[in-house]
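Lecture notes, continued. The same structure-token format from the folding unit now serves as the input rather than the output. Read the line below as a description of shape only.
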């Protein structure tokens, strides 16, 4: 009888230990997964950014990318900083965002807008990186968790940028297992990289070929910004229908 009681006690103790480990794993996973909807809904975000949210679907984008607290991320062609701020809010004070742009683009288009945004408390963990696109990584930066390139890779096709060099530099800057997340406006099959300046689009297959040539491996594709009603033959800023956009997640092999 005593042995039976001891066996039951041992089994109960083991089951309790297993349950505790499972609960700890669940709590750890929940802690590692930010509430993206709450981040997007933060009351101190601007009305202009909320208007942009309607077409950008930022909660879905952050979830697809897998942005987590404490990450270190390079945001390529940060422009006025819409995505940069969302990334900064998500990685939190223990993370860091490098917001990259070239000196020419800043001077001509976005300096005042980015500088104004940079005063916000949410941007305290952001470092503004002013470097050419084909040499975007500061020499003291390495082992990045993620690089984001949102809706601007097509700009590289009509600017004096060596895209092959740029892609290799991004690959080298990521830690093994790190991610490159790219979204852009879709061009028609056959357009390749020829309509970047006129339509602000790029053919998805062309972008894939260029990025994969640097060593990146495609691990996921998002369909939440696809709009098949878009004929893909008009400039994105003048389109009368929602723009068809592709979202790709690449990984640097371990």
């Amino acid at each position: 009888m005593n042995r039976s009681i001891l066996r039951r006690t041992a089994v109960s103790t083991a089951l309790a230990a297993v349950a505790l480990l499972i609960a700890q794993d669940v709590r750890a996973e929940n802690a590692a997964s930010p509430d993206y909807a709450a981040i997007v809904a933060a009351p101190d975000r601007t009305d202009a950014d909320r208007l942009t949210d309607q077409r950008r679907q930022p909660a879905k984008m952050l979830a697809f990318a897998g942005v987590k607290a404490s990450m270190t991320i390079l945001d390529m062609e940060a422009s006025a900083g819409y995505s940069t701020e969302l990334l900064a809010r998500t990685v939190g004070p223990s993370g860091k965002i490098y917001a990259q742009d070239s000196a020419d683009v800043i001077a001509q288009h976005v300096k005042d807008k980015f500088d104004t945004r940079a005063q916000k408390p949410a941007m305290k963990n952001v470092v503004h990186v002013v470097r050419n696109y084909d040499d975007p990584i500061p020499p003291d930066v390495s082992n990045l968790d993620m690089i984001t390139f949102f809706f601007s890779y097509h700009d590289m096709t009509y600017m004096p940028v060596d895209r092959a060099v740029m892609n290799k530099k991004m690959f080298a800057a990521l830690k093994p297992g790190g991610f490159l997340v790219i979204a852009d406006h879709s061009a028609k099959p056959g357009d390749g990289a020829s309509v970047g300046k006129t339509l602000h689009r790029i053919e998805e297959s062309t972008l894939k070929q260029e990025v994969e040539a640097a060593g990146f491996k495609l691990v996921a594709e998002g369909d939440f910004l696809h709009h098949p009603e878009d004929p893909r033959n008009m400039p994105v800023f003048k389109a009368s229908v929602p723009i068809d956009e592709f979202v790709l997640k690449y990984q640097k092999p371990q």
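Point for the exam: Confidence is low (pLDDT under 50) at residues 18-31.
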